[in-house]
Design brief:
heterodimer, A: mainly alpha, two-stranded antiparallel ribbon, 15 helices, 71% helix, 1% strand, B: alpha/beta, six-stranded mixed β-sheet, 26% strand, globular
């Protein structure tokens, strides 16, 4: 064999190794390191308040209910852990879906900031269906409400998609504006005298949805975990296969990576912008539906000010690297952080609960920052590697112009 | 050869992560000579001169200037020691005049002000001395590329360069301009300047160099005097095996008209008419070459043919079907193939695997998919076959396209386009930036396509390529076809047509 042939094969092997490294190890490593680093910095802040960071983290962890998996727990502890874990999973459910709303658009090269608005539109649609059609069989009522909420979210995302595809309006701007339309539109519907306001004329909130529109409880009694968890997990699977195993997903990814090459390849870029944002919106709309049909059952006007599940979804997608499995774990982390630091879980002496909420927000922000600063982390990793062992080859600088 | 060398590089070694760019390279330069550095892309030429110019520092090895061992810390340091470099991409400020650009950073001043008259005077003096005709008062954006190059050379001379490094200087020039550059280089060496001339073009080396050093994969293969060197011998040293430089091809037997273009007009982004009423045919079994200097409407013409840009007027028919308003996708399925001008920006989705890239036009058809469901395993299987057939090295079907070298990326595109068996193949700059081995391969494949009865439209800025492949040559100038020639036309004649039928006078 010629010299060049051997070189070629070796280069092939090297690039295969580096591809594996990049997609598997590197893909997991960066988010995990970002999270660890964020917890480390958060620990320094706890220490600065003269509390023990280990104690605080232990208390937060216990508050998440994840101790339920420990085999050696007593009955009473286990029951408490179970109810905490139910909370964590309830919070995690919509986060997975709003993260998918960000991730799908991202794979098409767009930044969907409109998850929050799409969530509200989906939730409003689900409330409308859930508070009407009394007497419908449960399966039909639930299915109908979910389908309508999904479509409503798709329309809300699709508006931004059409604007991008036809007149080139940037989706960051249009989705942010659509968020506000959804928030104020929601308030208008449920405020005193609003067309969807509930029975009590003095409270600005909706009717409760009929029980026939409730998602089935699957675990727990007081505020049980609901079947929405399965719907969200199914969403992850749909996302994965839609993206990787359908022609639509192929087009979306091609447009996301290189719109010019996609166009050259015969793909309509505008059509994909529209479809990607519509599908994104449907994920977020579904998130609204499972929340209201699973455990909220109603909405009040001040909920519209407090809602942040669409925005946390951005962070989840970022940390989860727009991959289905990544989003699963990232959503669990963010939900656990939220539940573990909620005031009712924490002992005053270990860490002041009113600070704990801020700590959670801070850790979230740090994670986003560190994932964003991926380059820095990769660089540090590269330094380590250069000192330690000789890792996979980078692309030859001279060839790469 | 008794004269002591002006500059000596001994055992220069430079390691980049994963690649040994320079492996114990020896090189020397004698006062007043042109020493060519010849090698394929990635052979280490640029690394070596960048070391000499202070942009990189060698891991090992020694640089001796006038017999004295030196360390070149930075480009500034190199300039101070009399080493000047003209990059492939010029570093000039377009809105400033020639004189202002040349004296930049070392301006003659009178008090706090730029002494413009003195600057102009010095530039004029230098340009007459070396026969580099440029107008010191002209603005950079108003003069030709060849003149800009002269400004770069003058800039180096102005800063006192005794050694001039020219990095692929002819890549941007027409043949006439290249010849003028060679005159300039000869004038420089007669006046005692020494020149390092980097290129991968064999004919240039034999034209201009006194000595030739060939690099391959970071190693110095040999240094030979021009006398006695042949293109074949140099090519063998560059590539490491026998290379067929001339494309072996028989006479063409043109058949029916496949592609018919009639009075086509196309506008560019700025709304200017880039193509003006262009008409031509491409027949089965012929290669039609479109020759012209970059920016004379070729890109817009290709885009209009491929459906990536709406024509303002005219008609495009393929096998009698009117495709003037057809989408890109429709054209691809009607029998059009397109090797795009810019393989990284347009030809490939660099983050996709090779298998995905090979399926770029047909992913929505069987066997790659059915009813919207994709069969990645079939993509991989087909890709594996094609990668082997087209001798793509550096990765398999699952390798991201980004990690391949330029030549192999181009082979992937060629594999995709040719395997679809298009009736007409548009090949835009199919070998730009590739090395001799890859060029040979791609040329052979194009001729093969022609011989199997397909029509090929070749668009290239390289006259050599046009001349060695085309059965018919159309010359475009300012968006119009200004001449049609047979395959035996002289380079001279084409060159004149390419510049609008008149030789440009040096300013």
């Amino acid at each position: 064999m010629t010299d060049s042939g051997e070189r070629g094969e070796r280069a092939g092997f090297q690039s295969a190794v580096s591809a594996w490294f990049g997609s598997r190890l590197g893909g997991v490593l960066v988010p995990v390191m970002a999270a660890l680093l964020a917890f480390f910095v958060g620990g320094l802040v706890v220490a600065a308040t003269k509390k023990n960071p280990f104690g605080a983290y232990k208390a937060i962890f216990e508050g998440t209910g994840l101790t339920w998996f420990w085999p050696f727990l007593g009955d009473q502890e286990r029951a408490a852990a179970a109810s905490d874990l139910q909370q964590t999973l309830i919070i995690m459910t919509p986060l997975m879906l709003t993260a998918l709303a960000v991730a799908f658009a991202f794979r098409c090269g767009m930044f969907n900031i409109g998850g929050q608005g799409q969530y509200w539109i989906g939730l409003i649609a689900a409330i409308y269906i859930g508070t009407h059609f009394e007497g419908t069989p449960r399966a039909a009522h639930v299915a109908f409400a979910i389908i309508c909420a999904t479509l409503a979210g798709a329309i809300w995302g699709g508006i931004a998609g059409i604007l991008r595809a036809t007149v080139g309006a940037h989706e960051v701007i249009s989705t942010i504006m659509l968020n506000w339309i959804a928030i104020y539109g929601g308030k208008y519907l449920f405020e005193l005298g609003g067309s969807l306001q509930g029975t009590d004329p003095s409270i600005p909130r909706s009717h409760d949805i009929f029980e026939s529109a409730h998602l089935w409880p699957i675990w727990g009694a007081l505020q049980p975990l609901h079947a929405g968890l399965f719907i969200a997990m199914f969403g992850l699977i749909v996302y994965h296969f839609l993206l990787n195993r359908t022609t639509l997903g192929y087009e979306v990814r091609a447009v996301g990576f290189n719109p010019e090459a996609a166009r050259y390849g015969g793909i309509s870029v505008g059509r994909n912008y529209f479809l990607a944002l519509a599908i994104s919106g449907s994920f977020a709309g579904l998130a609204g539906a499972v929340d209201v049909m699973g455990w909220k059952f109603r909405v009040a006007t001040n909920d519209f000010d407090a809602g942040d599940v669409g925005f946390v979804g951005i962070a989840v997608a970022l940390l989860g690297r727009n991959k289905a499995v990544g989003i699963l774990f990232a959503a669990l982390l963010f939900a656990a952080l939220k539940v573990g630091t909620s005031p009712r879980q924490l002992d005053e002496k270990v860490f002041p609960p009113e600070l704990a909420g801020n700590l959670a927000t801070m850790i979230q922000a740090l994670i986003i920052m560190f994932v964003g600063a991926e380059l820095l982390i990769v660089y540090i990793w590269g330094l380590r590697r250069r000192v330690g062992f000789s890792g996979p080859a980078r692309v030859q600088p001279e060839l790469k112009q | 050869m008794t004269e002591a060398p002006l500059l000596e590089l001994n055992g220069i070694t430079k390691q980049f992560p994963g690649v040994l760019a320079n492996d114990r390279i020896d090189f020397d330069l004698i006062k007043g000579e042109v020493h060519a550095l010849l090698g394929e892309n990635g052979a280490g030429k640029s690394t070596l001169v960048n070391i000499l110019y202070g942009l990189y520092h060698p891991d090992e090895g020694e640089i001796r200037l006038n017999g004295e061992s030196i360390r070149i810390a930075s480009p500034r340091d190199a300039i101070d020691r009399g080493i000047g470099m003209v990059h492939q991409h010029f570093m000039l400020i377009p809105v400033m005049t020639v004189a202002e650009n040349i004296v930049l950073a070392t301006e003659p001043t009178s008090g706090p002000f730029l002494d413009y008259a003195a600057a102009s005077e010095r530039v004029r003096e230098l340009s007459t001395r070396y026969g580099l005709a440029v107008d010191p008062e002209a603005r950079i954006d108003e003069i030709t590329v060849a003149q800009q190059q002269r400004v770069e050379i003058l800039k180096a001379l102005y800063r006192g360069a005794k050694i001039l490094i020219l990095d692929e200087p002819t890549a941007v020039l027409t043949p006439q301009e290249a010849r003028e550059l060679f005159e300039i280089v000869r004038a420089l060496t007669e006046q005692g300047e020494s020149v390092i001339f980097i290129t991968h073009k064999l004919n240039e080396v034999l034209d201009i160099a006194d000595r030739i050093t060939v690099l391959r994969r970071g190693k110095r293969i040999d240094s030979v005097p021009r006398a006695g060197a042949t293109e074949e011998g140099l090519a063998r040293m560059m590539v490491g095996r026998e290379v067929l430089l001339d494309v072996a091809k028989g006479a063409s037997e043109p058949g029916e008209v496949l592609l018919h273009v009639e009075e086509l007009s196309v506008f560019d982004e700025r709304g200017l008419e880039a193509c003006r009423s262009v008409s031509f045919d491409v027949r089965a079994g012929e290669i039609v070459g479109i020759a012209g200097v970059d920016g004379n409407g070729q890109s817009e013409l290709i885009d209009a043919l491929a459906g990536l840009r709406k024509p303002a007027a005219g008609r495009i028919t393929l096998l009698g079907n009117d495709l003037t308003r057809a989408s890109t996708d429709e054209r691809l399925h009607e029998g059009l193939g397109h090797i795009p001008e810019d393989r990284q920006r347009r030809g490939l989705v660099l983050d996709f695997t090779l298998a995905e890239n090979i399926a770029l036009h047909d992913f929505d058809n069987p066997p790659y998919s059915r009813l919207g469901w994709l069969y990645p395993a079939r993509m991989v299987a087909n890709a594996r076959k094609l990668l082997k057939e087209f001798d793509v090295r550096g990765g398999g079907p699952q390798t991201p396209a980004a990690s391949l070298s330029g030549g192999n990326q181009q082979k992937v595109i060629l594999a995709r386009e040719v395997s679809r068996q298009p009736q007409v193949l548009i090949a835009a700059q199919p070998t730009r930036g590739l090395d001799v081995g890859a060029i040979e391969f791609i040329h052979r494949r194009l001729v093969e396509q022609r011989d199997s009865g397909r029509g090929i439209l070749l668009v290239s800025f390289e006259l050599d390529e046009i001349l060695s492949l085309s059965d018919r040559i159309l010359v475009v100038y300012e968006g119009q076809i200004v001449g049609e020639y047979g395959p035996d036309v002289s380079e001279e004649e084409l060159g004149i047509a390419m510049t609008g039928g008149r030789r440009k006078d040096a300013a």
